[in-house]
Amino acid sequence: MPLKEKRITRQRRIAVLPRDPSRMRIAIFTETFLPKIDGVVSILCQALEHLQERGHQVILFGPPDMPASYAGARCIPTGGPRFPLYPELRMNLPWPRIGRELRRFAPDVVHVVNPAFLGPTGIALARRLRLPLVASCHMDIPTYTRLYVGAWGIPIAWWLFRSVHNIADLNLVPSTAMRDQVRANGYRRVRWWHRGIDTQRFRPELRSMAMRERLSGGAPDQFLALYVGRISREKNVHLLRERVATLPGVRLALVGGGPELAQMQRLFAGTATTFTGFLRGDDVVAAYASADVLVFPSTSETFGLAPLEAMACGLPVIGSMSGGLVDTLRDGENALVYDEDQPGGLAECLQQLRADPELHARLRAGAIAYARGRDWQATMDQLIDYYDLAIRIHRRHHHTSR
CA 189, CA 133: separation in Å to the nearest integer? Predict the structure, then answer.
């Protein structure tokens, strides 16, 4: 048989393999993964753990420095330089090995996470092999484009991302705000993939006086405000200098790293601020549980996992009702909300919370109750249901197009 005919036969064989919905084979393409730590990586780790628990097989294509495996999934590294405008992100390139590994694995469905560099390769291979395709959005496209390219690039960015996403059988977003935003910009077949929290891991009982000493710079009796997340331009960490770090009787702890860490360390020099760098495992949970409030100045969240993690640890949140936070923050119940166009309101909310122990106790109880109603395993079962839906959509489309 000629080589070309062999290749076509192999492609068709992948597309028509009999499928057991309780034992799917899933190929995931992601621009970012461990050892990097951010919300997208946390959600991917949850997904891989849950898929393994449910008996599904996964192969993951990602950045070159990731581990060889995670939660039973084999991780296939790709090569590529760092993206000059955002060095934490690699420009993962389409190596020939990717196609060979994908064909050998013979997935039932392909899931592309935030297609930018590696993602379009996954999309092209899925289309070529006639495989069901899910794409998920995890980035505030207008904000990132404005900050790292310029406002002139926003229409181009929407056109590029819309073009690749609309190839997918199903597009997933992490919040109602993101759902409305991408639909308004022409995305089709969009569904809301909810977010949850592991309350067995994130819990108030891990409060630690030793961690509070560390976070407060040796002043544990002062009011301790915490920020957890990337130290990068789009997170508005600089706003915390005047609104939090200079307030009398208040200590600020910044947990995380990122491209602006050194710049922020210089900016906050001489203030009551502690930089911890990245914290992992029980340390980050203890940081949440040992503080008094989470201050979250970002307005570019497509979901915002840190506020939900903080709530599970009994921490009220101060933030603005923007982006994905609209699905999490409840003003006066689990958070105090200020107008994003008036960032000075952040300091007012903090002073209000500090001066009113009853308000603090009420928000703390509300935060715990809210988080306990957001089960992460249910959200991962929802993802599995979406994989099955994408397979059915794909089959229906190809049946009617013949």
Answer: 12
* Placement of tokens 């995931």 in the chain: 28
Query: 169, 156, 339, 303: which is closest to 229 by C-alpha?
Result: 303
How far is the CA of 373 from the CAs of 31, 192, 358, in angstroms?
31, 18, 23
d(CA 191, CA 183): 10
Q: What are the C-alpha distances in Å from 290 to residues 67, 196, 294, 298, 370?
A: 31, 22, 11, 22, 19
Q: At 390, is the secondary structure helix, strand, or coil?
A: helix
Per-residue pLDDT of the chain (402 residues; tens, 9 = 90+): 443 333 333 333 344 444 566 789 999 999 999 998 888 999 999 999 999 999 999 999 999 889 999 999 999 998 777 776 666 666 666 678 899 999 999 999 999 999 888 899 999 999 999 999 999 999 888 888 898 889 999 999 999 999 999 999 999 999 999 999 999 999 999 999 999 999 999 999 999 999 999 999 999 999 999 999 999 889 999 999 999 999 999 999 999 998 899 999 999 999 999 999 999 889 999 999 999 999 999 999 989 999 999 999 999 999 999 999 999 999 999 999 999 999 999 999 999 999 999 999 999 999 999 999 999 999 999 999 999 999 999 998 776 555
- Give the strand pairing for 57-62 and 25-30: parallel
The DSSP output letter for 216 is T
Question: Of the candidates 115, 203, 201, 212, which has an alpha carbon nearest to the alpha carbon of residue 164?
Answer: 115
Strands 190-192 and 223-228: unpaired
For the chain, the C-alpha Rg in angstroms (whole number) is: 22
Vertex 178 angle, CA 172 and 181, to 5°: 115
User: What is the C-alpha separation between 287 and 173, in angstroms, rounded?
Assistant: 29
Looking at this protein, which amino acid is placed at residue 27?
A
Residue type, 327: D
